[in-house]
Amino acid sequence: MAAPPRGNTGYNVYFITASAFQRRLLFSKEPMARLFLEVLFHYREKKNYFLHEFVLMPDHFHLLLSPTLSLERSLQLIKGGFSYRAKKDLGFIGEIWDKSFYDRRVRGLEDYHSFKYYIRRNPVKRALVGSPEESRFSSAHPGFVLDDVPQKLKITA
Question: Considering only CA atoms, which of 53, 3, 58 is closest in space to residue 30?
Fold first, then answer.
């Protein structure tokens, strides 16, 4: 589902959280979860951002992402692209996303590893799985190939 890792650059890295509308358990349904990952990797393959880590929870997602466009545009592609496809392909009716998203700029390698740990442990913390690798909709699950730790962060470490 993913291309080989791409070298990264001087782009900023962000920890992103976005929630389903009214925290609905939208992604507990496998077709919705699979479609979200399809959209997420589609825009990554188009080089709209570098994807370092992700987890899809039943009612929200977390990403470690380096936009090649603006951060807002990257999230518009992910959230808007998913909304369009969910309505078109799965016949979903209604609101999908909360209007806003939370972002925090990753300041260094230590920050990066803290967010990576949080993302990978989130499904375990919520008692959805016993280990990070068991979460099928997470970068911790075997088989996902992601972008490398940004060179910019390695230099500042």
Answer: 58
Q: What's the chain's average pLDDT?
A: 91
For the domain 14-156, what is the CATH superfamily, name and number? Transposase IS200-like (3.30.70.1290)
Domain ranges of the chain: 14-156
- Rounded to whole angstroms, the Cα distance separating 14 from 38 reads 21
CB 107, CB 150: distance < 8 Å: no
> Residue 156 has what pLDDT?
53
CA distance linking residue 132 with residue 117, whole number of Å? 10
4 vs 135 pLDDT, higher one: 135
Distance, first Cα to last Cα, the chain: 31
Return d(Cα 135, Cα 91) in angstroms, integer: 26
Position 123 pLDDT exceeds 50: yes
Backbone angles phi, psi at 55, to 5 degrees: -150, 135
Backbone angles phi, psi at 53, to 5 degrees: -155, 155
pTM of the full structure: 0.89
E strands, the chain, where?
14-19, 49-56, 60-67, 102-105
Q: How many whole angstroms separate alpha carbon 149 and alpha carbon 115?
A: 12
